[in-house]
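REQUEST FORM: STRUCTURE PREDICTION
Request ID: SP-0412
Submitted by: Lab K.M.
Chain count: 1
Length (residues): 162
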Amino acid sequence: QTLNHALFRLISKTIYRLDLTKSSLNGLDYFNDEDCNKLIDSPLGLQCEVLFIRINNRINVLHFIKKMSNLRLLIFKCKGDHQNFLLENDELVKWLQNHFLSIHSIIRDRSDPSYIQVWINRQKEIPNNDIKISKDRYKIFRLLKSNIPVVFSKSSVSKQNT
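STATUS: Completed
RESULT:
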């Protein structure tokens, strides 16, 4: 079962923040892959700057950030994320950091640790990856990647850029 398709056809030039966590999703608690893709391609998805959402699949976070060009803040809860939020070894946060080379700020929400906040930096784009970072971090990343690829693993390069 998917969401009411009227949501994906809404048009408003003044809506920049969508909170899709509080509404009843036609009996569904989380957005599935199909509904995430429809949201991304919808008029509201294209202009959205702040999105609160519950999703079935973590891969949709990557899609939101890559395809929603105006998105600055994504606050989401992922089904199946039953992490002990007090541990330093947070698997979902580390997964996200590895996919974004720590170029975005990725933290657990302090008021509700079942939600993750991704603050999106769109200052500089890495060629061929559609990921945005600041000029300085891009230079450091390129220097490390080209000069010392054997010494640093992907995760240690990510940690140095934070």
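NOTES: The chain is about 35% helix and 15% strand.
Reviewed by: T.R.
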